[in-house]
């Protein structure tokens, strides 16, 4: 089983309060995250991204009890498709960095969403 197929089988967390996805070294918003797992994420964006393109992104999230600014992630685009939501694209991203730090940041993010949604 390759890494991409393994990422597809990981538990996904759907988002009810979107996480903004920025290009890492700017304030330019690339899109909003629809769901994520430890392996990757699906975002919605006004522009398509070329398959296999490498990107350096930053995730920002806040709710009433948590504020997470600037989780850096390096991703590769696995797929892009036209969305049924307006004039936008759904984009599948695979995390290239599977470090303990990223896993820890994503766990905090998942826990804050679980606590927020329930």
Task: Give the overall shape.
Answer: globular
Strand/helix succession: HEEEEEEH
The biggest beta sheet reads:
6 strands, antiparallel, barrel
Structural class: alpha+beta
Helix content: 10-25%
Account of the protein in words:
Helix content is 21%, strand content 48%. It is an alpha+beta fold and 118 residues long. It has one domain: predicted glycosyltransferase like domains (Thrombin, subunit H). It has a six-stranded antiparallel β-barrel with strand order 1-2-3-6-5-4. Strand 1 and strand 2 form a beta hairpin. The longest helix is centred in the last third of the chain and has 18 residues. It starts with a helix and ends with a helix.
Structural features:
118 residues; alpha+beta; Thrombin, subunit H; 48% strand
Q: Topology of this protein?
A:
Layout (H helix, E strand, L loop, with lengths): L2 H7 L3 E11 L5 E8 L3 E6 L8 E9 L4 E16 L6 E7 L4 H18 L1
Antiparallel strand pairs: 1-2, 1-4, 2-3, 3-6, 4-5, 5-6
């Amino acid at each position: 089983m390759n890494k991409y197929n393994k990422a597809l089988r990981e538990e996904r967390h759907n988002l009810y309060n979107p996480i903004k996805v920025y290009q890492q070294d700017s304030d330019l918003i690339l899109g909003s995250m629809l769901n994520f797992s430890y392996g990757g994420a699906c975002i919605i964006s006004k522009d398509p991204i070329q398959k296999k393109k490498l990107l350096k992104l930053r995730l920002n999230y806040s709710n009433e009890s948590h504020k997470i600014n600037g989780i850096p992630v390096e991703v590769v685009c696995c797929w892009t498709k036209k969305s049924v939501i307006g004039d936008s694209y759904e984009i599948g991203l695979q995390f290239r960095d599977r470090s303990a730090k990223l896993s820890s940041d994503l766990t905090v993010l998942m826990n804050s969403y679980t606590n927020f949604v329930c």
